[in-house]
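PROTEIN DESIGN WORKSHEET
SECTION A - STRUCTURE
LENGTH: 225
TOKENS:
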């Protein structure tokens, strides 16, 4: 259920003062009234949290699938170190890897474990690994991370990139507490399920079973709120 703030505990005027007129203004414009703005703000909070729950599962499944395929390719090619130290990674990617290694090792105070480095790499790093610039380097390995795609080993890179790009934008908006009520949330949610479903049908069903997104979609307040 959507958490509801008692109108006795906070008024629309007080929330606007605390959140700033600018922040609450877009909600009021959408709903047509101060009370409606508060209702939509509460819904936006709840939907953001629900989407982030699903995103969390999808992101971990994606990055681990990518890690497995890149590590396998590196091993098959005789690599002696972690795949993320490969010279094929561009300058921005190498900066991301360096930051992740620093965090994973406590800036050199602890041994480096690949799993910790993988966990520290941002979603943006993984999203850019499916960009056109890696068509001939990373993509031949990464396309194998999607065995359930209808095209199988011929999975089109652009289909993965488009969905990951949209999810990345959504993730950043949620992380920065920005409004998402004007987004096509159903489309965002479908992107998540599609991506994870191309990796594992079971995983897609699991994410869907746990998700609060569909229920919250049906509870979005309208302009009569």
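SECTION B - SEQUENCE
RESIDUE ASSIGNMENT:
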């Amino acid at each position: 259920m959507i958490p509801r703030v008692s109108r006795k505990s906070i008024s629309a005027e007080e929330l606007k003062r605390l959140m700033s007129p600018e922040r609450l203004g877009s909600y009021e414009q959408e709903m047509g009234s101060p009370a409606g703005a508060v209702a939509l703000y509460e819904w936006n909070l709840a939907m953001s949290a629900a989407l982030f729950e699903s995103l969390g599962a999808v992101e971990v499944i994606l990055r681990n699938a990518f890690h497995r395929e890149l590590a396998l390719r590196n091993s098959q090619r005789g690599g002696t170190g972690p795949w993320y130290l490969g010279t094929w990674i561009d300058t921005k990617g190498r900066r991301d890897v360096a930051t992740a290694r620093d965090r994973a090792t406590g800036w050199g105070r602890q041994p480096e474990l690949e799993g910790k480095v993988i966990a520290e790499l941002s979603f943006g790093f993984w999203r850019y690994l499916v960009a056109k610039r890696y068509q001939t380097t990373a993509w031949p390995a990464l396309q194998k991370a999607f065995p359930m795609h209808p095209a199988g080993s011929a999975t089109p890179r652009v289909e993965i990139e488009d969905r990951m790009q949209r999810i990345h934008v959504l993730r950043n908006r949620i992380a920065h507490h920005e409004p998402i009520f004007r987004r096509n949330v159903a489309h965002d949610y479908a992107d998540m399920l599609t991506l994870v479903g191309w990796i594992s049908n079971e995983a897609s069903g699991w994410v869907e079973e746990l998700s609060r997104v569909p229920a919250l979609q049906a509870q979005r307040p309208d302009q009569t709120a």
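SECTION C - NOTES
The mean pLDDT is 93.
The CA atoms of residues 69 and 101 lie 20 Å apart.
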